[in-house]
């Protein structure tokens, strides 16, 4: 070991101690020059609120040192204390983000500087910052269960949306991060509705915006625009003039980052509009119809669309389930009585099998598509209504306890290669069988194992069901948590008849599942006319983007 390194290791993290070190080598003419002087702060330290008002629970600390050094920030709000991750390399001009601030609270920040020799010192100036209260409207958060010792570490990140006569919810979007106690530690506010959102490996946030689907944005944790993509559409203004146009009809429900080496950067869902004759009508009989079909699409960061797979070409466009004839896309296409035939609401890529896995809500099915060929590989869903050649792709259930999903969301591939999804359970029937009465409906988080060679499927685990009845009719998510094996359930489209609300729960992957964390997003005291919902969520290992990223399910 070099003598300077050996000396540096003996230095305290908070004070520097001159040590009598020598190199011990033969022929030495005298002791080597030893750096025992900690770096000096020439300018600052100063703290300022984040200049981007879209992320108010953040600040920036700046200072200048007389030699290259690392800076570590020790932050306290009187209840919580944490450190800001040190800079990756020693520099003289420092600018550090302070994330994780709580609303309406006084924060103190101590600054520690350390040079390459390991000499360290604390600045005598303790910085202070008081954050503003949460704005109105803001989702109310009530924690009913919190067992941190049994939970996946980190913060829970989710989108929030609401309906209220005084506000247009399509012109309001919010991303929120909360800790195990339900305290808000970060939020991002935008003036258009946000749906799918996730953290990228580079630490930035990627999200869709503008329902049903026009834009995609990447922002950093200060809320600053990094890159964006959009579909030019009447009445739509992209998040930035630097947003890149995409040659697609829409981008909706999900933007999934593709692995390196695949030739694409992102996977998404798009649409196409096709006229059909002799199409079933909601009022009975048949006639001409404008059918919206989903398209699996890939694109690069430069906006180049590299792949499109039409589901209308892959599946039976005349297979009609409950809600297949509803007009979800009417406003987007500027038409009346379009038919939302399949309503794809998630798409992921599984590199282990080279498959796309797509959730088709209005077909009561999750389908796998071979990426190289674009061919259909299997169908996980009720066998009702499938004719040849599609019936040859149906999976056969083989487990003694088994239920098909209905109107499901957010199908993903776990690290074990299984399929995890949120089974909304609307009606639990395929026409002409009657749907379950509203009072008998239930939702589940459910895991399946598919054997593509035997064309079989097993139900491995479920949370929820007839004996553990809870229900969300729309939205929702289920995520595998890799450190604990728990499952994060976004039970996000609930209703008590007069008001919409959401529940976020972390449950054990056991039979029966045990709730170790539960949060309600609901106005309750006094009840007002806000209806809150949550589309998706995920657990981040830390609010700090420099912290290791928890691998999400594929």
Which key phrases capture this entry?
Immunoglobulin-like, 5-stranded antiparallel beta sheet, 554 residues, Neuraminidase, 3 helices, 2 domains
Can you describe what's shown?
- It is a single chain.
- This protein has 554 residues and is mostly beta strands.
- The protein has 2 domains: 128 residues, Immunoglobulin-like (Sandwich); 393 residues, Neuraminidase.
- Helices cover 3% and strands 44% of the residues.
- The chain contains 3 helices and 36 strands.
- Strand 2 and strand 3 form a beta hairpin.
- The chain is elongated, with a radius of gyration of 27 Å.
Amino- and carboxy-terminal Cα gap: 43 Å
Share in β-strands: 35-45%
Q: What are the segments in which pLDDT stays under 50 over at least 5 consecutive residues?
A: 1-27
The level 1 CATH classification of the largest domain is Mainly Beta
How many domains in all?
2
Counted by DSSP, the helix tally is: 3
Structural classification: mainly beta
Q: What is the average per-residue confidence, as pLDDT, rounded to a whole number?
A: 91
Shape: elongated
Spatial extent as radius of gyration: 27 Å
Helix residue percentage: under 10%
Provide a short characterization of the protein structure:
3% of the residues lie in helices and 44% in strands.
